[in-house]
């Protein structure tokens, strides 16, 4: 039964640690990507629709007007830097991005938008650029790339909440198992407990060994969960993901070591409360 407590605590706290690390990872990715998120000013092509594209592809004069607007005293204070991507550059990037996709064979450079890629000093002020350029002639659309990131982060948040839900169920199972284990342990030692009562031992004196037994089992399980977190971060996150996906920021072993004492404290407190409740009720019977 004690081994069962260790294993259930280990599994449940591993889910808790995973949920915490997922939230830390999401926070790191937001800080990393939101600062790099650009505003894309897509110019009209011959196949574009909309009032701004009524005359077909953006003309050189319209492109010059958009460039002047970006460099104007009104917008330049919000802009860190920007660059222009013409049809050929857009086509080269498209071919690289969709190299294994059959659609790449049917796309021509003139079908792809010429684009101004704008880095803002404060990405949260992208609405200023959207409002200023959306009505310009030759502009098909102005898109804040953070909208795409929000969809990804919403999926990651859903995964994190799922892990929290599973962890909560596992913690409830661990609490019930600890309580059951303590009561069975007390029942198996009922003769010793009777003798201790006869010689005047207080309830606190009788309860303490059982509470320590539950806390010790949970402590071992929480250490195993912490070790699992460190191993996952070291070998999988840093050893695999960080190597194969170098364009983003990942949690490190230091973050896992921050989670470790949280798991130990949570496991010990739950075990102490559960064991105390179980043995107190048993002694009242």
Radius of gyration: 30 Å
Characterize the main sheet. 4 strands, antiparallel
Low-confidence stretches: none
End-to-end C-alpha gap: 22 Å
- Classify the secondary structure makeup into a structural class: alpha+beta
| Widest β-sheet, arrangement of strands | 2-3-1-4
Q: What's the overall average pLDDT, rounded?
A: 83
SS strand fraction: 5-15%
Number of domains: 2
Helix and strand string, N-terminal first?
HEHEHEHEHHHH
Q: What's the total count of β strands?
A: 4
Determine the number of helices (DSSP H or I, runs of at least 4 residues).
Answer: 8
Helix content range: 55-70%
Q: Could you say which overall geometry the principal axes of the C-alpha atoms support? A: rod-shaped
Keywords for this entry:
4-stranded antiparallel sheet, 4 strands, Alpha-Beta Plaits, alpha+beta, rod-shaped, 8 helices, 285 residues
3D structure, described in words:
Part of the ABC transporter FtsEX involved in cellular division. This protein is an alpha+beta fold and 285 residues long. It folds into two domains: 1-33 and 150-284, no CATH class; 41-147, Alpha-Beta Plaits (2-Layer Sandwich), CATH 3.30.70. Helix content is 67%, strand content 8%. The chain is built from eight helices and four strands. It has helices at residues 2-36, 60-70, 87-97, 126-133, 146-188, 190-198, 203-244, 253-284, and strands at residues 39-43, 79-85, 115-120, 139-144. A four-stranded antiparallel β-sheet has the order 2-3-1-4. Helix 1 runs antiparallel to helix 8 and helix 7 packs antiparallel against helix 8.
């Amino acid at each position: 039964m004690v081994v069962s407590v260790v294993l259930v605590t280990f599994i449940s706290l591993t889910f808790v640690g995973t949920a915490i690390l997922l939230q830390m990872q999401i926070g790191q990715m937001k800080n990393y990507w939101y600062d790099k998120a650009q505003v894309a000013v897509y110019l009209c092509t011959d196949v574009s629709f909309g009032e701004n594209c009524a005359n077909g592809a953006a003309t050189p004069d319209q492109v010059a007007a958009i460039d002047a607007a970006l460099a104007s005293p009104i917008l330049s204070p919000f802009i860190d830097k920007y660059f222009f991507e013409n049809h050929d550059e857009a086509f080269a990037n498209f071919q690289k991005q969709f190299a294994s996709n059959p659609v790449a064979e049917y796309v021509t450079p003139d079908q792809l938008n010429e684009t101004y890629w704008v880095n803002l000093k404060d990405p949260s002020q992208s609405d200023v650029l959207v409002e200023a350029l959306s009505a310009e002639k030759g502009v098909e659309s102005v898109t804040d790339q953070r909208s795409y990131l929000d969809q990804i982060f919403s999926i990651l948040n859903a995964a994190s909440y799922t892990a929290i839900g599973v962890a909560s169920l596992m913690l409830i199972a661990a609490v019930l198992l600890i309580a059951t284990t303590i009561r069975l342990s007390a029942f198996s030692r009922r003769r010793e407990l009777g003798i201790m009562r006869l010689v005047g031992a207080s309830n606190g004196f009788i309860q303490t060994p059982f509470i320590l037994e539950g806390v010790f089992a949970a402590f071992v399980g929480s250490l195993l969960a912490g070790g699992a977190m460190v191993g996952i971060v070291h070998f999988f996150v840093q050893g695999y993901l960080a190597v194969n996906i170098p364009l983003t920021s990942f949690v490190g072993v230091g973050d896992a070591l921050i989670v470790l004492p949280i798991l130990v404290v949570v496991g010990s407190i739950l075990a102490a409360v559960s064991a105390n409740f179980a043995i107190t009720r048993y002694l009242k019977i």
